[in-house]
Design goal:
Helices cover about 45% and strands about 20% of the residues. By secondary structure, the chain is an alpha+beta fold. It has two domains: about 10-100, SH3 type barrels, CATH 2.30.30; about 100-220, no CATH class. It has a six-stranded antiparallel sheet. A hairpin with a 2-residue loop joins strand 2 and strand 3 (about 40-50). Helix 7 (about 185-200) runs antiparallel to helix 8 (about 205-220). The N and C termini lie far apart (about 50 Å). The relative contact order is 0.09.
Length: about 230
């Protein structure tokens, strides 16, 4: 049976049968591959499990093999899968770029320098719970439009693609935090409020969101900024 999943970022990997190694047992699952990336010498896969309707990040070392049901290609080497994933992702990016209007083809995201650190913080918070919803995306896009006139000229689709592709890590987050000292209390309060809005968009504050929100508030206090966000 074939499935469709709205959250998957690469349609070529919607339908995959994977064999996972767990406690010396082999478990078969049908999944969608949302993302594959390397960190140091380790390879990770963000998988959406159709049976449980939940996502999990899996170290490739625990994947015995998998079969892409769309292409009928079999993989027992996850590094080869990673190369194919990057290749198909680049093909998709090029196809989408060809469809863009001239303004977006020529757009340089250096034009967003005045809010670059803000965007890093907002995306990091939005993705730290591993569920980057349309609501979170809309909050960040609206923030960009309010604070950058060039962003206002871009299509929603173009901004969404940028936010989906941009994945700041913890080092990027703390670097961006360090740059907040140049903000006014009013600007800091607005950014903090947007972080709260993103964190509460799914109904509750996750542990990771609480952790990084506390880091943001502590950093602002150290810079002499005490924004009133109505949460304390």
């Amino acid at each position: 049976m074939y499935y469709e999943m709205e959250q998957s970022s690469n349609p070529d990997f919607y339908n995959v049968v994977v064999h996972l190694v767990y406690n010396n047992n082999m478990i078969e699952e049908t999944v969608a591959i949302k993302k594959i990336w390397k960190k140091g010498e380790f390879l990770f896969l963000d998988l959406y499990f159709y049976r449980t309707k939940k996502s999990r990040v899996i170290n490739a070392a625990f994947i015995h093999d998998l079969l892409d049901l769309t292409t009928e290609k079999y993989y027992d080497d996850m590094n080869l899968l990673y190369l194919d994933y990057l290749s198909r992702k680049e093909e998709t990016r090029q196809e989408e770029a060809e469809e863009l209007p001239p303004l977006e083809k020529a757009f340089d995201f250096k034009s967003l320098d005045n809010i670059r650190d803000d965007i890093v913080i907002l995306i990091f918070i939005a993705k730290c719970s591993r569920f980057f919803s349309d609501v979170k995306l809309r909050v960040i896009a609206d923030y960009m439009n309010r604070h950058n006139t060039k962003a206002q000229l871009l299509s929603d689709k173009f901004i969404a693609a940028y936010l989906q592709e941009h994945n700041p890590d913890e080092d990027d987050f703390y670097h961006a935090l360090d740059n907040l000292r140049s903000k006014t209390p009013e600007q800091a309060a607005e950014l903090a409020a947007e972080v709260i809005k993103i964190s509460l968009s799914d109904g509750c504050l996750q542990y990771s969101e609480r952790l990084y929100l506390a880091e943001i508030m502590q950093a602002l206090r150290e810079f002499g900024l005490c924004p009133d966000i109505g949460l304390e």
